[in-house]
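Let's practice the habit of predicting before peeking. Look at the sequence and jot down your guess about where helices and strands might fall. Then scroll down.
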Amino acid sequence: MEDAVSSLVRAYARSGVEGHAESAEETFRDMTTRWGVVPTVETACAVIDGYARRAAKTRRRNRNRKNNNQKSDGSGPLDAERLLFELMDDAEKTAVGEEPLLPTSACCNAVIKAWARQNSREGAERAHEILVRMEYFANSGTDGGGRAIHPTVYSYATVVTAWNRGVGGHEAAKRANTILHRLLEKNEEVQKARAKARRKDDKSPNQEEQFEGVPLIVPNTILFNAVIDCWAQSSHPTSGTKALDLLKLMKGVGGDALPDAVTYRSVINAFAASSHINAAQSAEGVMAMAQQDGILIDTRTYNVVLKAWSASAAPNAAKKAEKLLVEMIEAQKAGDIIIGPDAYSWSTVLSSLAKSTEPGKARRASNLLDAFADYSKKTSRVGDDGSKPNTSCYNTVLNACAFSAMASEEERKEALQIAVETFQELLNMDGVEADYITYGTMLKCIANLVPPESIGNRNQLASKIFQRCAGSGFVNGLVLKEFKRCVSNDCLLDVAGAGGARMDRRKGGSSLDRLAASITLSSLPREWKANVLESRKESRRRGEKEKERNGESTGKPNQKRRQKKQEKKEDNEDNDIFYSVPGFQIVETSWQSGRDV
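Done guessing? Here is the structure:
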């Protein structure tokens, strides 16, 4: 009977069917009263594990609830934690000589993992609380039939991950650092106490037995890597230095804590994200250290160093990035296939060039793009589009051209010619399509590089690009703003006025100026903007408008008035512009737009 009832509990717990976890707990609680069977630790852990398994489904369900603005359901880990703490409390109250029904370390780890999967502050805090209770039981010596409950390395690593995913930033990095160093200090205390108890002149013979029961948990590579990753994700100015200190500490600990390729890559990433003035040099130094230690360096490791140079403000950053790219190509030619550059490598070097202030950057970026195309033809496999130039690569070259406005007249003309050729090449390529960044950046090239006195050429070039963009449905704030910078009011009204220009008599200036100023993004036809992904704010505002049209309440008494005010504000101000390329992001705020003209 005992085996049958225990099998029924485990079957309920493992089924994954909604409501079966509750049935498993109900059967577990009725084992003594209904069937006269004494519950076992394994059966109790099966019920807890059933609730913990449900946490994964709860997390998927929470994604849908979040998208629908509904409250998240954390019942899975909550029920698992409730039953776990209930058994822990009962174990503390168990009389001496009796065997407590204490969950195992693996059972506790399952609940910690369930909370870590919630990716929230509450999940991190609750996971940490379970870890603290496990440490308490380990130190108090309470056990269940010789199965003492104590945290494992996996427990600590999972809690660190919970802080990283649920909270992130500098706070998570500091907490992770504290968890690791507290564990190291505790191990050092236990080792010293054991050594002291073994001395011949020690008068406390039972002291060694006391500390022999305390587990010695030595951090391994996984735990160190989790803490280093917290620093890498924090983007704190000191994150690179902190991560490097942990790397050196790993070498001192040794054993199962020796650094691997992931360790070095995380330290490099910590420097790359730190925004420190010497971050790129330090990142490259860590990669050299890895090579000296016999760690295999692959493309991903090189890419992180390239990312660091791309984000660096050093005057020679672009040259350093190009040098590393050449090093990767030469290594691949020599037969080292794990170091060959991929699309990310090329686009990151392109971004470094685009953001540099070096002369001739437009030509250099164009040549690099051509080299990438030639390289991909020689090395790409059939059907492999991941190693070919993509839209972001072409956009980066256009960006390098657009920000060549402070160069000499000859270089500006060359930059404009390169921009036109790159734009046409992109439009004619198979498998690569222009997006709103492409059109907006090309218009910026015209605004920055075509002389203002050549208004006819500006109008002609910009009109063709804007009309093509409208036909593709990619008109957004960036495109409209740059188009206004390029053309005269007459041309603006001829091209975009048909989209529904409104007369706003409250604006000053001539009638022509008022008409031109009344052309806003909201006044343009919807099909011109059909393929532009709307932001979350815009989606929420559109939903509230639909509710108002249907006579439903939005829950805000002055919503309509605030909406009109916000729309007018967004029409008059220029939104921030983001140039997104794998591995980098150029941010140009509204007050910087056209500043280089």
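How did you do? The beta strands are 143-144, 147-148, 577-581, 584-588.
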